[in-house]
Amino acid sequence: DEIILRGAFRLSLTTEILEVRAKVTTAITVPELPYPLFDLQGTAAFAIDAEGLYGMAELYINSTLPPSFVPGFDFDAEFVLEVNTASKPKDIQTYEFDRTNGNKLDLVTVTLAARQLHIVAGGTLTFSLKDASAEIEFAGRFEFLITPFLIEIQAQVSVSSTPDLVSGNAEGAFQLTSAGLAGFIQVNFAAGDEIGDTGLTEIIGADFSMSLELAFYINTGIDDVILNGVLLVGEEVKLEASGFLELSIDDVAGFRIEGELLV
């Protein structure tokens, strides 16, 4: 994995380290894709000592260029690039992102592992279901891992939709290749004020219990993909809900309803 930063650099030398501050541009690319996934610009602050280079860059999508993310998906985010080329861990200052709305939080000091290149973004990913019945928004934190063959994305987000079809907290993973975007996002159940709170997947009462699971299955490529053991059918973007409602009456009678819904 490799990131190239271009721009204007200011160097400051002390007895122990060389400090580097810069205005930079860069691009995140997918192997075999003829255009960049993201064109980015921003500022960087690094330190260089006898052990290597370490620090971080704040990056933003270049709004003067046309969007180049996956067709049908809009990704609006701020990025933080964290790097440590040293052979041992280094403390750096960086930003964290809110996992429910993607907002950038205060500066924090973290320990970055040796020889680590880490890309995190906070923002929103929006798209429509295949039949255009609803527009979906994931807002929160996205972590990128760049490999020679693909880009992996871990997501910790909140989910909302227009119309109000689904809401809740969610976690999952995507992979980006030249074939397209494929991912699986598990949504925690949001039942509303009357019967439960956002984040629950099961509700148990005196005479009933209810469980519901929601998940998004996304694959913009032609071929089927298996990601973390989950089959993602080619050219399919869907929301699947499954669960059960179980009732009992004074320990005399009871019944159970199970079902599944595809959107």
What would you say about this model in short?
This protein has no helices and 18 strands.
Element-level helix/strand string: EEEEEEEEEEEEEEEEEE
Which structural category fits the helices and strands? Answer: mainly beta
Q: Categorize the overall geometry.
A: elongated
Helix content: under 10%
Total domain modules: 1
Poorly predicted residue ranges: 190-200, 259-263
Number of helical segments with 4 or more residues: 0
Query: What percentage of the residues does DSSP assign to strands (E)?
Result: over 45%
Mean pLDDT: 83
> In angstroms, what is the radius of gyration?
22 Å
Spatial separation of the terminal alpha carbons: 37 Å
For the largest beta-sheet, the strand count, sense and barrel status come to: 14 strands, antiparallel
- Multimeric state of these chains? single chain
In total, the number of strands is 18
